């Protein structure tokens, strides 16, 4: 086993660009000259207005899209992690199998990898507990709430033991109270698992509740990360605290 190099880079992006071909056959730069270094175990927020290219950037990091230009390096943390990247989508509905129970959904990837039954059950049980799903393992997705479905999605991704969690507005479709609960839960899970997390949001409050660092993306086209903030506040964070408010005003000023 290699020892995790604390603070060593997990992801390095240099001068990266992404173009799409418009209907008019014109080439449009969605991302241009993006520079970003994310450390192992860091909780990093990509914050930006709708349409600026957050999902495009996350999808490139996740390997779902090819970059057009520049450098993207993903470094493994250590050999303890089985897979490189796990992706959490905004809606669990499109990714959970409706004909499988909560438990079977979490188990799915492990079955595909032919992990022996006893070990599989042990792993599934531990992530069901970690995600706060105990007692719900025999339910089907149609029988649980939106917040619970996101917990299942998270448990399923975590069961594959990825190095890096890529989360694209995962709580965007939840009501405000459930979102708050899920934010707290995610911080707890991140602290217990030491994953590197890249979390996309356009909600400043959410960014400040979660992130150790926040990268602000400019309005597209040719979007890039124009400002970066270290949020030096302990967890769990309080929305009502003066320090929180102080950061809020600074970040908000970018969008006035
Ligand atoms: N496959 C594609 N072909 C052409 N243009 C695309 C494609 N995918 C995204 N775009 C364009 O790239 C830009 C960035 O889109 P993206 O989905 O990354 O933004 P976003 O910041 O995630 O927005 P939102 O907050 O609404 O999710 C948009 O103008 C979008 O229309
Ligand atoms: Mg998006």
UniProtKB/TrEMBL annotation:
PANTHER family: ALIPHATIC SULFONATES IMPORT ATP-BINDING PROTEIN SSUB, TAURINE IMPORT ATP-BINDING PROTEIN-RELATED. Residues 11-244 form the ABC transporter domain. Transmembrane segments: none annotated. Pfam families: ABC_tran. This is ABC transporter ATP-binding protein. The keyword DNA repair does not apply. It comes from Metabacillus fastidiosus. Keywords: ATP-binding, Nucleotide-binding, Translocase, Transport. One of its GO terms (molecular function) is ATP binding. The keyword Protein biosynthesis does not apply.
């Amino acid at each position: 086993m290699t020892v995790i190099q604390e603070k060593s880079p997990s992801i390095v992006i240099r001068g990266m660009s992404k173009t799409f071909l418009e209907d008019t056959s014109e080439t449009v730069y969605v991302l241009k000259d993006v520079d970003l270094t994310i450390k192992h175990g860091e909780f990093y927020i990509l914050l930006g207005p709708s349409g600026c290219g957050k999902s495009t950037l996350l999808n490139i990091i996740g390997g779902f899209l090819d970059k057009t230009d520049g450098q993207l390096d993903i470094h493994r943390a250590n050999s303890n992690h089985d897979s490189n990247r796990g992706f959490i989508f905004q809606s669990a509905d499109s990714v959970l199998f409706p004909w499988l129970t909560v438990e079977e959904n979490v188990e799915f990837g492990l079955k595909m990898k032919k992990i022996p039954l006893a070990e599989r059950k042990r792993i599934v049980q531990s992530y069901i507990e970690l995600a706060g799903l105990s007692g719900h393992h025999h339910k089907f997705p149609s029988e649980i709430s939106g917040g619970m479905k996101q917990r299942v999605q998270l448990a399923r991704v975590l069961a594959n033991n990825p190095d890096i969690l890529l989360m694209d507005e995962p709580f965007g479709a939840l009501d405000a109270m459930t979102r708050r609960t899920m934010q707290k839960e995610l911080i707890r899970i991140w602290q217990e698992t030491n994953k590197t997390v890249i979390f996309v949001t356009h909600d400043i409050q959410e960014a400040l509740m979660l992130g150790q660092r926040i990268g602000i993306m400019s309005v597209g086209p040719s979007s890039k990360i124009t400002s970066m903030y270290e949020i030096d506040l302990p967890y769990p964070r309080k929305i009502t605290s003066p320090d929180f408010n102080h950061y809020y005003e600074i970040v908000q000023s970018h969008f006035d």
